[in-house]
Each structure stands twice: as C-alpha cells, then as structure tokens.
Amino acid sequence: MRQAGRYMAEYRRLREKYGLLQMFKTPEIAAEVTLQPVKALDVDAAIIFADILLPLEGMGITIEFAEGEGPVIHNPVRTRKDAESLRAAQPEEDLGYVMESLALVSAELADEVALIGFAGAPFTLASYMIEGGSSRNYLLTKKIMYEDRETWDILMDKLSRTLTAYVLAQVRSGAQVIQIFDSWVGCLSPADYMEYVLPHVAGIFGALKARGIPSIHFGTGTADLLPLMRAAGGDIIGVDWRTFLDDAWARVGTAGAGIQGNLDPVILMAPWPLVKSRAKDILDRAASRPGHIFNLGHGILPGTPVDIVRSLAHFVHEYSSVQGK
Ligand code: CP3
Known about the structure:
By secondary structure, the protein is α/β, with parallel strands linked by helices. The chain has helices at residues 9-17, 20-25, 27-41, 54-59, 80-84, 91-94, 96-108, 122-131, 139-147, 149-172, 190-210, 226-232, 245-252, 272-286, 306-322; strands spanning 45-47, 63-66, 70-73, 114-120, 177-182, 215-219, 236-238, 258-263, 292-296.
C-alpha cells in the first residue's frame, strides 16, 4: 500500500524542497522516503517509493502531479492512432532510477524486512491514460472498451507487456514481492472484468508465477470480483474494508490463496480504542490462518496521526503472536 507520504513530518520536509517526480527520480531521495515508514512505524515490509504512472512516460505519455489535483495526463489516449503510437517502455532505460532506488534500499534493509516492488495493473493505468487523470464514472474508458475493442486490446496488450518487463526488472534489482495495483477495477461488472481485463492482467501474474516470484493482487470495491481476481493471478489478494475479511477470504478460496487487508485508513483518525478493536476484529477473522498480511484497505491519508499507526503496527505484532495460544 502507499505507506510513505504527507502524514509524516520527515516526508513533508523533503517534499517542501522537491517536486514529486524529482523525488521519484532521485534514487537517494526515493530510498530515504522508502525507509522513513519502516524506521518510524516498525512495519514488516518496505514498498519502493515510486508511482504507478511512471512507466507511462516511457510509453510516450506526459504525466504531471498537479498540487491538490492529483495526477494529470496532458496527451490522453482516445483513438486507435493514439494507442498504436505508444511505445513499450524499456524498464532498464526508461525506469533505471527505480532500479537504482531498489538496489539502494535492498542494501539498507534488515533481512527480516521484505522489499515490495509494484506496478499498476493494465486497467487502472488505461483509465488514467484515457480519462487524462482521476475519474468518477470511467465513461471514456468504458466507451473505448465497449465500442472499439481493437483499440482497447492494443492499449491493454502494450501495457501488459510493458508492466511484465518492468516488474521482472524490479525483481532483478532487489524486489522480493511484487504488488499489482488495480485500484479502480471495482468500477467494472464481473462480466466486463472477465471479458476485457482478466486476460491482460493474467499475463503479468503468469510471468511472475513461472519464476516463483510471490505476488499480491490489489483492488478496491472488488467484493464480487475477488474470485475472478484470484483466477487472473496473485498469491495474495488485497481487499478493502467494504467486505469482512473472512467473507472475502472465503470468496477468494482458502486453498493456497492468501489475503491482505483490510482496515479502513480513515479509522486511523479515530480514538485509539476504536482503532484497536477494529484491528482485533480483522485478526480474529483471519484466525491465525497462514497467508494473512495485515494491512490497510487502501493508502494512508494525509493528516493521519503517526503515533496511532505506530501503535497499530505494535498491536498487530503483539496480538497475532499470542493469538490461538
Ligand atoms: O508509500 C510508498 O512509499 C509507496 C509509493 C507509492 C506511491 N504511489 C507514491 C505516491 C505507491 C505504491 C503508489 C501507487 C499509486 N499511485 C496508486 C495505487 C495505489 C492506490 O493508492 O490505489 C495510484 C492509484 C497512484 C496514482 C496517484 N499518485 C494518486 C491518486 C496520487 C495522489 C495525489 C494526491 O494529491 O494525493 C498520487 C501521488 C502520490 N504517489 C503520493 C505518493 C506518496 C502523494 C504525494 C504527495 O502528496 O506528496
């Protein structure tokens, strides 16, 4: 999940001096930011400080993180010609800075802290490319999907190939687990997911599985998509807080599949006793079964008290170590 960010004073101090893209592209800064939450919170894994949109630059897309607006794309993909003119990004050349950041972090991390690499999933990235930024209804995206299947497949195929090469390069540079973020896939019906998304995302997970690389497949608003996401691939399926953890796990199927989640990040703004009781409920629902990664159901929000997050990590370690004993 996104665990670095503006809720941390150390991050804000750097962010006052540098633009976001500059931070991603300077390996020393990216490595420092990656390690900030690991040091401050005592969490079990670091996630490399990068963004799902970065590989799009290598494909010919211009991205900007506009203050207070979120990501903006200045040359959105709207026609077949737009899709055809996209390149497949070359990870070592176009995203060499991510590889360097991974190598730096990998050398710094203690053995018991895992290093997570990541990429956006084809659907979520296609939605940014087509809409030109964040979206509410994904109208333009769905319009291309439904009305221009060839353009859709060209775009999704190029994304899937770019992302596969990208995550494999991350593993060569020190990532031990790959998380694929299909953050906005919950806007699709199960039928549309099967038809337009599953075959493309399956290619990425197939390449990881063939090499024995552990993977996490994350989405939000996906209650009814969970079995299909599992079919598409991923050893661990990420879920948000809109489903009870044990119900979600049953939908994914407990045989061989793990689950990640699923505390509402907004709960972290509530008084500690409530945070603790919601965290305990999640751990009770996981019931010490192997394969649960405790996490938030989505990225941490600016304004979240760091003390509460630290107490949460501590509580999860403590309670899960005595659970079932
Ligand atoms: O925590 C970490 O160090 C991991 C790094 C990370 C970032 N983005 C850095 C970032 C990760 C894993 C991401 C993934 C990402 N980026 C996703 C998928 C995960 C999810 O949350 O659903 C998505 C959808 C994006 C696209 C994106 N980038 C959005 C919607 C935003 C928020 C814009 C805003 O104004 O808050 C970003 C910016 C971004 N990427 C931030 C960080 C830490 C916030 C940067 C800042 O405000 O300084």
